[in-house]
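Friendly challenge for the regulars: who can give me the structure tokens for this chain first? No prize, just bragging rights.
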Amino acid sequence: MIVWNCIINSDGKLISTPSSATEITASRAVALGYFDGVHLGHQKIFSTMLSAAKENHLRAAVQTFENPPASKSQKGLITTYSERCRLVSEMGMDDLFALPFNEQVKNMSAETFMDVCLKDWMHTKIVVVGRDYHFGRCREGDIETLRSWGEKNGIEVIAVDPENYEDRKISSSWIRELIADGDVEKAEILLDHPVAYSGIVEKGQQLGRKLGFPTANIRIPKQKMVPKFGVYASIYLHDGKAYPSITNIGLRPTVNQKDDLPLTETMLFNEHFQLYGTRGTVLLLRFIRPETQFASVEDLKEQMIKDQQKVQAYHVARQKPVRFQGYL
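First reply, four minutes later:
Bragging rights claimed.
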């Protein structure tokens, strides 16, 4: 998949990179949206677009944004930009077009977006969007705006109905609610992949190692939403492989009196790696219990043994395969 980034200068002209690639002039079917989470509703849009691209001999493309609008940033992201790129690429796209969400883009009219971005930059022949899609300055453009413009420019516009689960529309906002409540199992169903957190393993107080529970500590990226604090059954991805694990997310109130930044602490079962300084990813599979402040370190250790037993039983019993390719 080729990733096309752009800069819009003060004259409203778009400068694209990589500018030398010959594929930029190819005609495309393009799916439009932010696509945070790349959930089943988004995947329905992608599937429709991929079919249209194949049928019409067009390149399959997705348009997204490099950075979130303030409204999304305040709520926290389900997936970072790099995670979205990997998940989108996994679905077989030819191109991804990434706009910076800056003041110029924020104030771009719907007409300019269609003429400059869709027509001149992406060479769009088919546009695929969710039925409730809005775009342009103050969300002035909608599906009817696109259709009217498309008729004038010979561009087909396809609107995709929402994907539902349990009689409710699947949406990024619903998935954020689930993550905040610790319901990562239902979030995984709606996403079709687990909730994930990636980063570089830090060297902490090493208390877990002293207690017999060595952990890989990863900070939650600032832009990502923080899940409900507590203990989770998890999968840890390291060096292209997946390992059953147990993860604690929170502030560690029993042993931590200073740090107020949430941390993921993950212990791999029956594995002993030197992980400091390496990049890892934690996939959350089931919420086990909320974070608790214990009266003593010994009480904490006793509870950790119980948590470990419960999580190991979960891993043995789980039959559903874990989809993690987009995070490797």
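The radius of gyration is 22 Å. Residues 163 and 275 are 40 Å apart (CA to CA). Your move, everyone else.
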